[in-house]
Amino acid sequence: MAKQFLNSSIIRKVAMGLSGFFLITFLTLHVSLNLTSVIDEDLFNRVSHFMGYNPLVQYIGQPILIFGVVFHFIMGFVLEIQNRRARPVRYAYNAGSANSSWSSRNMIISGAVILAYFCLHWYDFWFRELNYKFIEMQVPDETRYYRELVHKFQNPVRTFLYCCAFVLLGFHLRHGFCSSMQSVGFNNKYARAMAGFGKYFAIAVPACFIFIALFHHFIR
Question: What are φ and ψ of residue 106, in 5° steps?
Answer without folding.
Answer: -125, 35
